[in-house]
Amino acid sequence: xxxxxxxxxxxxxxxxxxxxxxxxxxxxxxxxxxxxxxxxxxxxxxxxxxxxxxxxxxxxxxxxxxxxxxxxxxxxxxxxxxxxxxxxxxxxxxxxxxxxxxxxxxxxxxxxxxxxxxxxxxxxxxxxxxxxxxxxxxxxxxxxxxxxxxxxxxxxxxxxxxxxxxxxxxxxxxxxxxxxxxxxxxxxxxxxxxxxxxxxxxxxxxxxxxxxxxxxxxxxxxxxxxxxxxxxxxxxxxxxxxxxxxxxxxxxxxxxxxxxxxxxxxxxxxxxxxxxxxxxxxxxxxxxxxxxxxxxxxxxxxxxxxxxxxxxxxxxxxxxxxxxxxxxxxxxxxxxxxxxxxxxxxxxxxxxxxxxxxxxxxxxxxxxxxxxxxxxxxxxxxxxxxxxxxxxxxxxxxxxxxxxxxxxxxxxxxxxxxxxxxxxxxxxxxxxxxxxxxxxxxxxxxxxxxxxxxxx
Amino acid sequence: xxxxxxxxxxxxxxxxxxxxxxxxxxxxxxxxxxxxxxxxxxxxxxxxxxxxxxxxxxxxxxxxxxxxxxxxxxxxxxxxxxxxxxxxxxxxxxxxxxxxxxxxxxxxxxxxxxxxxxxxxxxxxxxxxxxxxxxxxxxxxxxxxxxxxxxxxxxxxxxxxxxxxxxxxxxxxxxxxxxxxxxxxxxxxxxxxxxxxxxxxxxxxxxxxxxxxxxxxxxxxxxxxxxxxxxxxxxxxxxxxxxxxxxxxxxxxxxxxxxxxxxxxxxxxxxxxxxxxxxxxxxxxxxxxxxxxxxxxxxxxxxxxxxxxxxxxxxxxxxxxxxxxxxxxxxxxxxxxxxxxxxxxxxxxxxxxxxxxxxxxxxxxxxxxxxxxxxxxxxxxxxxxxxxxxxxxxxxxxxxxxxxxxxxxxxxxxxxxxxxxxxxxxxxxxxxxxxxxxxxxxxxxxxxxxxxxxxx
Lengths: 456, 456
Prior knowledge:
The structure is a homodimer of 456-residue chains. Chain A has 456 residues and is of the alpha/beta class. Chain A has 3 domains: 13-140, MgtE N-terminal fold (Alpha Horseshoe), CATH 1.25.60; 151-261, CBS-domain; 284-454, Tetracycline Repressor, domain 2, CATH 1.10.357.20. The first copy, chain A, has 22 helices and 7 strands. Chain A has helices spanning 13-24, 28-36, 40-49, 52-61, 64-73, 76-84, 88-97, 100-109, 112-121, 125-135, 142-145, 159-170, 194-199, 206-209, 223-232, 253-271, 284-311, 321-325, 327-350, 358-388, 391-421, 432-454; strands spanning 151-154, 179-182, 188-192, 211-212, 217-218, 237-241, 247-252. A 4-stranded mixed beta sheet of chain A has the order 1-2-3-4. In chain A, helix 17 runs parallel beside helix 22, helix 19 (327-350) runs parallel beside helix 21 and helix 19 (327-350) crosses helix 22 (432-454). Mean pLDDT of chain A is 88; it is low at 1-7. At the A-B interface, helix 12, helix 13, strand 4, helix 15 and helix 16 of A face helix 12, helix 13, strand 4, helix 15 and helix 16 of B.
């Protein structure tokens, strides 16, 4: 954030047309003057609206200290295309300008063969080695998120000596959150804030000032776990260590904000029956790939419901025909209740506040579903009775509804708990999966109970 | 974060029983020794598992610099109960220890009359005035989120003078992200990082070092907008100003992390048909209040579907009865497609990347739905034809399915766009609302088209 910033940015059609015009006219001077006003995140938004050729034109025009940051902010699809249009040498120049974490992220997106070519072109040997190290960590681990840039001091130093040495290190670290204190073996001892250092007397020893026993995460830790720890303890940066407590890097809160946003989007999409990371601007084929499998699941469920209803076809005479007309209602209620109860459990699991036994959860959901079910069934009973004047039918339908709602609630509660225990992301349970299974089971239960009550 | 921290914390039943035992025995010494090992966020988790009497016991036992932080981390329901058990004087003592933003948040949760009593008991006059100011800002505005604590310097100062003066201010600011530079009229000119100050020569003027034209937000700005700006520009703190650019306070990224999490949870719950901020540990009555209205909507929709099917009753006898057995399938597909397309739009709107005209969105969704619909319908056609051997019926059902899916997709796309234009949160559209309306419309369309094709 060393640039001048301007929050009044608005991505308008007029602005995009202006940029396109300058590109067409190859009016580099005006284009540069126009874009220099904007923050790199804003320029990235503009480039996302241009075609590839235009975007590459802008990237080649601007200085690499800006374009490297722009690249990190581009839409993943667009970045991939832009990088394809750049030579390994050009990409390496962008990489030189980036912090190690962003640099490694971009390189990791390249095809295997290109990765080597780009790395070979990086001139700064230390930067190169650090990026190579970061590329060895698995996706979704703390290692994949951390940066090697940090300010490190030894416990034996004094405040004055420390300040001198920090001046050197700090210039290459964008933001200094904490100063990490290590011992001779490079093991993390604790940390200091820059503020503590400024407030302290010059002659004091670091070992007197250091806060020991600080939070750190293992390099293999899952990123979601890291996000939870940082959010819970309100940390703005956390040091990353190996199993020997050797300081390897640090993770900053801005990366965690991105992780949290991605997590939330993924869960939301999964609940809506969309897999993979798609957005509204993706192609029809990409969107189909994300949506069709879940719709197909729904179709199979619908065929299941058909088969059940066909099995009860014999009932389709006289007064009992009315039972069939309530199947969409039964299916809808089973689906809605299931989604509600699974959503509550999924969210509770994500926040680590689902405690106590599975049984007590199920009993609570059963009582809850029974309460809701009885209220809804009472209403339905009065409607059917008033509308059709058939007490028995009204009773059969209403009693079944209560049973269906209770079972739907139990399934909605049990399935995510079960998946979680098996190590499967429980978020998959809220959505088409639970709706479909509840639809089928609900309809089966409904006909079965109604048939019993009506004695047909 | 001045405390020693320990991430190995695990909330176990054994731990809770240990705490409960010490409370029962009134073994204050052991209890204090045990809890002193933990971070305040962990102690809050423990207290959330205790009963009110026990929790209050612990709060009264520990020092107010720890308990004030614990209070901010408690579950809202539990905090309310604990605060009820404390006197105005006791609450004021906790408040004295907190930053202004946390202090104002806690006071805002108290009943009106108690707020005055607590404020009157705050001894630090400056703290009191600042909290009173913060309480005047509306919920969901930048003002409600900001803290008054910040480090401020005047543009006319030198680096050396600045460092001296900062030492004083910094002691009361937990984390120094940026140093805000103002002119004589207290208007925000720009900012400096602590790092810049350390790296700079002592005799330089602040006005030479300051980064001008920095991001700031108006005190009336919506918090979601603030979150978007901070996430987009990777900011860790943002200054808050009034319309005259007078510096009023600052918002830090940890508050934004909380806003983002709450937003995500709210949207997720809304998509699942749950209103209000409930979690799995809430009472059955609270959960019913959050869930029943949506279920009732589903019930009304189901009755609508019943009325439609009844309207077609006379028309279907003999072989056409099969049409009724596919209504759950049709309703499920209409619901699923609607939820998928609305989820994509809702998320796009949240990320500000739904651009272009409504018409082009609708055309894209129509093509997408048509593609998905044809694939699914083909499968259904083959199933019905093979299973029943009735070409016409198979054709009628399949063609209707395509039409239903296209209409469902269009409604799912249009409704959130329409709500958004009207200033209503579009997230309400993903969930029971869209499922229910699509169910009814889908079934109506299905019978209508099938009837036409079969010529009955």
